[in-house]
Amino acid sequence: MCTSRERYPTLAELAPYFQEAAGQPKPRLFAPFPPSVNDDFPFAGFLNAYSTKMRLVPDDTIGPIEHPHSPKDADKVPIYIDFPMHLPTQDTPWIMSELTPAKATLTLDTVVFVPLLGQGRVISIIDLTKTSGTLIISPDAHPTDFVYIVAPRKRLTIPWLTNNPETDAKPAMHVWPRLRKALSSQFDKLCERTARSKTPV
User: Fold this and answer.
1) CA-to-CA distance for 55 and 63, rounded, in angstroms?
2) Cα separation of 171 and 104, whole Å?
3) What is the pLDDT of residue 81?
């Protein structure tokens, strides 16, 4: 498998294709997909430039061209997404398709294969609700191009969160700030107890 940085586009390189296709309908994919499509086909520029960099699945799903092929790669997860209409930002995240293999759940540091962008790693999970959470993925080829993908909650493993429905229903609390807040509170209480114990009677 080629891992050259030149193989994968940056988000900045993808941006003009999404801008060009703004307002166009989602394309209907079919197999076998031709090497090029006519300019009047939805997202023609994007598909003509990058159809060989992703796995096209009729009717409207794309997946990575990379897949685990050896036991040492068994924990790596190929992510399929609904055909993207925007860049994968926090405001317009890509949506993980149900075609994503169900062999593994996703958690921090899970190695994944992302369409167009290659291998990367889950560096955070945000916007947790009862039904979904948003993965933040850093691609190996371009580590500062953070990719946001919404995944079903049932596919996520968050070991430090409880299963409290009231807690789970609260959206968009980043897990690390939550931990820092809890640790800070414990530290403040410890300082108060220490100060009281040193107070003369």
Assistant:
1) 5
2) 24
3) 97
pLDDT (0 to 100) of residue 73: 78
Return the pLDDT at 127.
93
Q: Classify 86 as helix, strand or coil.
A: coil
**Is 60 exposed, middle or buried (CB count within 10 Å of its CB: 0-12, 13-18, 19+)?**
middle
Angle (CA) 59 46 91, round 5°: 80
Question: Cα torsion at 138, 27, 86, 100 (round to 10°)?
Answer: -30
Cα gap 37→198, rounded to integer Å: 78
Q: How far apart are CA 63 and CA 83, in angstroms?
A: 9
pLDDT of residue 92: 97
Q: CA dihedral in degrees (185, 189, 195, 197; nearest 10)?
A: -160
Kindly give, in sequence order, each residue whose CB lies less than 8 Å from that of residue 4, ignoring residues fewer than 6 positions away: none
The amino acid that residue 69 corresponds to is H
Q: How many CB atoms lie within 10 A of CB 107?
A: 14
Is 148:198 a contact under the CB 8 Å cutoff?
no
Residue among 112, 116, 115, 141 nearest 125 (CA): 112
Q: CA-to-CA distance for 80 and 77, rounded, in angstroms?
A: 10
- Distance, in Å, from the CA atom of 52 to the CA atom of 33, rounded to the nearest integer, reads 10
Which residues, given as ranges, of the chain have pLDDT below 70? 1-6, 159-201
Return d(Cα 14, Cα 26) in angstroms, integer: 17
